[in-house]
Amino acid sequence: MFRLDLQRLFLLLTTAAVLLTFANSYYVTYQVQKQLLIDSTLEANRVYAAKLAETTNNFLQNAQKQLAYSAKILSTDFDNESLRESETERLYQQSSFFNSVSIINSKAIITTVFPKTIPIKGLLLPENNRNPFNARKPLVSNPMVAPTGSYLMSISHPIFGMNEKYLGFITGSIYLHQNNVFFKLLSQHSYIDGSYIYVVDQNKELIYHINKKRIGEQIEGNHVIDSVIIGTSGSDKVVNSLGIPMLAGFAYIKRSGWGVVAQRPLENVMAELDVQLTEVVLKSLPLLFLILTIVLIASRYITKPLKALASQANHMYQNDAEQNILNIKSWYFEVHELKRAILSGLGTLKHKINQLNKDTNTDPLTGLYNRRSLDQLLEQWRELKQSFAVIAVDIDHFKVVNDLYGHDVGDEVLKHLSLLMKENCNENYIAFRNGGEEFLILLPSTKQADAHFFAEKLRVKIAQYNMPIAGNITVSLGISYWDSNSNDTIKITLKKADIALYQAKRQGRNCSILHS
Ligand SMILES: Nc1nc2c(ncn2[C@@H]2O[C@H](COP(=O)(O)OP(=O)(O)OP(=O)(O)O)[C@@H](O)[C@H]2O)c(=O)[nH]1
């Protein structure tokens, strides 16, 4: 089964944490910047709309002042045609406010017009265009269709003669579908960032729009327009008549009751934000990579000793395991503790294994090596061609000891006898308990005669030894010899020692016989 290692886990978690932190910062920055940009765009548009409203207001005021001045001059000699003609021309030429200037008399007849090319002189003012005539006061009209068919709006001023007699009025017209003063005034606005302005009258009709075709269009369902024509100024989000979300600033033009709106598509603002954010991301990438590299190095540094410990824990049975574990650098607390625990565990394990080895290779009663150890050692010696003599030892009439004194005393005899054999063996001789009251002593690189001499010496020592409760006992011994030149197998050699032992028994016991 696939299991993540600590380094990958560490790397995965820290990388995820770093990336999430960065992503969160980007997200928060994006949200804050978005709000800031929206707020600043709304504010910029509000200020701009207010400025344009003020400019338009000033323009209307100036235009009315000019008309008032002309009305004053005309009031002195209204019937003078050449004065009317020169005054309309002067107003048209000097002010450059109007597309045409005309004078209407008290019978609503157009008496004078400039440029003269406009064929309306002598015409009666249409009933639906008589607002300025009837109002008898300075007026800014709503857009209307003139007798010539032009879509226009007019600014007018009444003319009063002696004794406040109403003589008629003078009016300047602005042709909304042609190049006019509004275009000069309002089209200075930069359209690079997708923003634009428009002006609506009290009837929500477009008086000015960058797209001239839309002039005269009535706009419904736009809450910004609804607000501005009732005299409110401010800024807000709005969806325009084409369904495009906009950030709009709007301002009321007091003198005419119109509204000016400056707006920018939200999408353009967001595109600007995307550019800014991409720049932020690109600039933070080096730091992100640096952090991830540090994380990678740190993960290796932190997990390296743990990995080494885990690897050594899998090779505990190797001889150099302990040294390898000691060589692992434990530079932080947990690894140090873990290393200590593993070393302590290894020590306990070694001790247990030694104990286990001892238990499986020795006889629990006497502490001598058992038959299993004997077989292993003889197998080794056979491979190494190690010559040896073997002495088979058997207690004489041991049954009698058991019968007379009990099994426990018999056990004590076996223990004492084993001790005696161990004490008399030099460091090369090895004694085994072969089973029951039979023992074997292996004497490596020992000739038959020397082995026989040793057997005799041992036999005498045993015979002289005073066993607890049982007193003196005797043993019988059989000796044989093996080397690599021998025709016998090791098994036969042991058998021969056995045969010699039985020979000793038959000869009366308490003696040793060398197999011949
Ligand atoms: N107490 C005790 N007795 C044991 C043990 N193993 C074997 N014996 C006894 O050793 C005795 C061996 O008896 P035998 O094989 O008849 O031989 P023996 O009495 O020693 O006589 P010979 O060998 O002919 O001299 C038996 O009575 C076994 O019960 C042991 O571990 N403890």
UniProtKB/TrEMBL annotation:
| CDD domains (UniProt xref) | GGDEF, PDC1_HK_sensor, PDC2_HK_sensor
Q: Which reaction does it catalyse?
A: 2 GTP = 3',3'-c-di-GMP + 2 diphosphate
PROSITE patterns in the record, alphabetically? GGDEF
Q: Give the required cofactors.
A: Mg(2+)
Q: What is its EC number?
A: 2.7.7.65
Molecular function GO labels:
diguanylate cyclase activity
Instruction: Give the Gene3D superfamilies listed for this entry.
Output: 3.30.70.270, 6.10.340.10, PAS domain (3.30.450.20)
* A Gene Ontology BP annotation from the UniProt entry: negative regulation of bacterial-type flagellum-dependent cell motility
Q: Name one GO cellular component term.
A: plasma membrane
A Pfam match is GGDEF
Domain GGDEF: start-end pairs: 386-516
Using the UniProt record, name the top-level EC class of this enzyme in a single word: transferase
The UniProt entry, under NCBIfam families, shows: GGDEF (TIGR00254)
Protein name, as recorded: diguanylate cyclase
> Which species does the entry assign this protein to?
Marinomonas rhizomae
